[in-house]
Design goal:
The protein has 5 helices and 45 strands. It is mostly beta strands. It has 4 domains: 148 residues, Glucose Permease (Domain IIA), CATH 2.70.70.10; 169 residues, Immunoglobulin-like (Sandwich), CATH 2.60.40.10; 114 residues, Sandwich (Chondroitinase Ac, Chain A, domain 3); 78 residues, Immunoglobulin-like (Sandwich). The chain is flat.
Length: 572
């Protein structure tokens, strides 16, 4: 490797990590307090690897209970509230005078005054799902003020509080472990495996060798020998690693890693300050194909060509082997408290191991440019931000046998290839369709075990939709309306003794687009936590006496089912 080039990379990397260390010192320690009145224990930390994203906050244990009081971590104003079926569930945002915002998610009910305000806004908007900015001076809070009860709403898999600290101006999430919370960590990360990648090839088109590790004293080395020989003159490494807090067996994500070649810093990454707009780049940070094939999480130590995040230091990060002498590799893995584990070994280029690289004859999609595929009945358009590395295009078509199919089934790439941006998929129907038929066409993408459904749009008699997954695509006519479960068969259903109403509509494509319920013309607030069932807890908006209850459900194709009942509710 050119000495000047290596020196430049070293300076870049050192500046990067000097900045990280100074950032940790500049975070206001003690400004924020633990938002619960129990011991602070974590289920997950910042930067942990999740499906299609990095975990952007701290998951705080709630003793496997719900409805623990949640308090403002610092003084400020409640400026935003979100209620949604997935994601954060019920969430509160508090803006603080120091330019930071805290987020509290997966909550149950809000504190009484805020709870009433949100319900009023939901009834005003006639929507349970809501995302509203609050007038800045309407809900001021002091540090320690009660704001909500903990829960398990939204995308939560168990009771806990998801807590974030963000820059208010940019909404970038910061690593909350650097703010001095009462969480001890004197345990360095554990490194479980090492992988080598030939960076003359796409990471998706090679068989990746793994190397077992053994720990000797405070450092890791290769389980067999101390030198890796490779037939590639341009390589990079990846690792599987996790961290643990003191006194905890829970495996958490690592904070940072950096790679040295002959004591020169070549590449580094740190999970410290991430925007939700870039969190999907986690799919470039890991070996996506390996993970979706059932393998472990493996984190790249240098960026993919199509990775535009600020997670990595600003350089290529590949290791160039321009001679045949052994070169010392040191990989340091850090947690947020800067506890460090190190792997040390040697790598040596051996030309006799070079099996050569034969370029594919198929079309290739390349990161950083717009890519288009065209076939007689199928087209796909990808933006310059869709791919992380070069992809060999693979396409096939299968004649459809399904009675309601309006196109053949088109297979494009594999579900093992990640897509950062949505791609536009266009398909030509087998037979011409009327305007009425077109209005009921949906396009289904089957990507591994996932089925994603979109309503078709039309341009020049071609059906199209956007997807963020590769796999098979096919368009269908859907004229079957959803089903709504019955409340009963009586002429008038007595609901006096009932505490709530529950509906679980079903659909042939398993896609409910909207749900609405009214009684005597009054919209009712049905919750839809986790998108499973619609639940209404009786409130003052439900009239006494006999009224008509109307429930309507729409599927993705636009089919609507409406059911009506006469119901009775007497006062008590």
């Amino acid at each position: 490797m050119n000495l000047m080039y290596r020196t430049a990379l070293t300076l870049i990397g050192l500046c990067c990590f000097s900045f990280l260390y100074s950032q940790q010192k500049n975070y206001p320690k003690g400004y924020f307090k633990h938002p619960l009145n129990i011991r602070m224990e974590l289920v997950a930390n910042f930067g942990e690897l999740r499906t299609n994203h990095w975990h952007m906050g701290l998951d705080i244990r709630t003793q496997q209970k719900e409805n623990l009081p949640v308090y403002a971590s610092a003084g400020g104003h409640i400026t935003r509230v979100v209620v949604e079926p997935g994601g954060f569930g019920r969430a509160i945002y508090i803006s603080h005078p120091n330019g930071l915002t805290t987020l509290y998610a997966h909550l149950n009910n809000f504190e009484p005054r805020l709870h009433k305000y949100i319900i009023d806004q939901q009834y005003k908007a006639q929507s349970w799902e809501i995302d509203i900015d609050l007038p800045r001076n309407l809900f001021p809070v002091k540090q320690g003020d009660f704001i909500a009860y903990s829960g398990n709403t939204g995308g939560s898999a168990g009771p806990h509080v998801h807590f974030e600290i963000r820059e208010t101006a940019t909404e970038k999430c910061l690593n909350a472990l650097m703010f001095g919370f009462p969480i001890a960590d004197a345990v360095p990360p554990s490194i479980t495996r090492l992988a080598l990648y030939d960076r003359n090839k796409s990471v998706y088109h090679q068989n990746v060798p793994f190397y077992s590790l053994r720990k000797v004293g405070s450092k890791y080395g290769l389980a067999k020998g101390n030198t890796i020989k490779t037939g590639s003159n341009k390589i990079s490494f990846a690792i599987s690693a996790f961290d643990r807090l003191s006194g905890s067996n829970n495996p958490n994500g690592i904070y940072a890693a950096r790679t040295f070649v002959d004591s020169q810093l070549i590449s580094s990454f740190a999970l410290d300050r991430i925007d939700y707009n870039e969190t999907r780049y986690m799919n470039a940070h890991i070996d996506y194909k390996m993970k979706l094939s059932g393998g472990p999480y493996v984190q790249h130590l240098s960026p993919m060509p199509g990775d535009t995040t600020t997670v990595y230091s600003d350089n290529d990060g590949s290791i160039y082997l321009n001679d045949t002498v052994p070169h010392k590799i040191s990989i340091e893995v850090l947690d947020a408290y800067l506890n460090t584990s190190t792997i040390e070994f040697y790598v040596q280029y051996d030309e006799s191991l070079n099996k050569g690289y034969t370029a594919t004859a198929s079309q290739q999609f390349v990161p950083g440019q717009i890519n288009v595929f065209e076939a007689p009945e199928f087209e796909l358009f990808a933006t310059e931000f869709t791919f992380y590395d070069t992809i060999n295009v693979a396409y096939s078509v299968v004649k459809s046998a399904a009675g309601n199919a309006v196109t053949n089934q088109h297979q494009f790439l594999s579900y093992l290839i990640p897509s950062h941006d949505s791609v536009i998929v266009r398909m030509k129907p087998i037979e011409p369709l009327s305007a009425q038929e077109k209005d009921r066409v949906v396009i289904q993408c089957i990507s591994g075990t996932r089925k994603i459904l979109q309503k078709a749009s039309w341009t020049n008699d071609w059906a199209w939709a956007k997807f963020r997954n590769f796999g098979s695509y096919q368009a269908f006519i859907d004229t079957i309306p959803p089903n709504i479960n019955s409340l009963g068969n009586a002429d008038t259903i007595n609901l006096t003794a009932s505490r709530r109403l529950v509906f679980t509509p079903t659909d042939n494509f398993n896609s409910i687009k909207s749900f609405r319920a009214e009684v005597a013309g009054q919209w009712l607030l049905f919750t839809n936590d986790k998108g499973r069932t619609w639940i209404y807890n009786f409130d003052e908006y439900f009239p006494q006496g006999i009224s008509e209850l109307v429930v309507s459900v729409e599927d993705e194709a636009g089919n609507i089912t409406e059911r009506r009942w006469w119901v009775r509710r007497d006062g008590k």
